[in-house]
Amino acid sequence: MTEEMNNQAVNEATLDINNEEELLTLFDEEGNEVLYRKLVSFYHPGFEKEYVILAEEGSAEDEEIELIPMINEPDSEGDGGKFMPIETDEEWDMIEEFVNTNFDEEEL
User: Fold this and answer.
1) Cα(4)–Cα(102) distance, integer angstroms
2) Of the four, 36, 78, 81, 107, which is 20 to 30 A from 64 by CA?
3) Taking the model in full, what pTM does it have?
4) How confident is the model over 55-64, as pLDDT tens digits?
5) What residues form DSSP beta bridges with 4?
6) Nearest in space to 34 (alpha carbons), one of 51, 59, 9, 15
């Protein structure tokens, strides 16, 4: 089994997906508050990380919505934590596959 097929099998069989939406206030590079909607969070056992996919709240309906995937690193108690950027091509490929498989363009 190739690594890609193995990753896909892991994705389909054991991802722990949370579709509960919530609003988050984050800060951009200039320190401005920006409201985001957390669309989904999931744990990927192959990468042993929790990921979240965010979208900026308040975009006009005719605008293309930009999805913002991040790694969620929990704090020492296993709660909250901080969002870290995706850095590897393998993780970007996995997230792209996840979005293409689990989201319909009309849902976004």
Assistant:
1) 18
2) 81
3) 0.69
4) 888 765 656 7
5) none
6) 59
